[in-house]
Amino acid sequence: MACEDSVALELFYQPEAVAAFDFYETNNTVVFVNQSENSWDFVWDFGDSTAQTTDENPVHDYVVLNENVWYTVTLTAANQCMVDTIMVDILAFDIEELEGESLISIFPNPSNGIFSLNGKFPANEDFTLQIFNAYGQEIQSNRFNSFEGRINQNFDLSRFEAGIYFIQLQGKSQRQIVKVLID
């Protein structure tokens, strides 16, 4: 005669924690959007010697004094079994005008990537125009002249992914940085 017995076993599978985030900047305030998966505990380090936070979607103010500054933002995401960390370098711009008067407009903004930049600058001044993505990577650079004090430039960035981009115009007498949102 054989004995039989059965045991009910319940297995719990915890998916791997994946740290991920996006962000957008308004002046020197950065809004972080947590896109982590399978995680519920978070620790943010903003890379500027301020206190860490455990907020899920924090907002952080950076102090930028007349220069562009790189910060390494670290997000650690965890569940009860796994921990994952992502580090992203971001560029915080000094958005204020530096010298002289500049009237720049971008239309439409936000856009699908096709937009116009119009503005007034000192007449016949040579400028360098650089476009940076939100990670501070230069994606385009041109040189041009503000003929008769006007700048009228059309752009097509539709081949780039949606997000925040910065256009920096640097001339002899001034520098201007404007933000454009591609959706």
From TrEMBL:
Domain of life assignment: Bacteria
One Pfam assignment: Por_Secre_tail
Residue ranges annotated for the PKD domain, each copy included: 42-62
Protein name: PKD domain-containing protein
Signal peptide residues on this chain, from the entry's feature table: none
Database matches in NCBIfam families: Por_Secre_tail
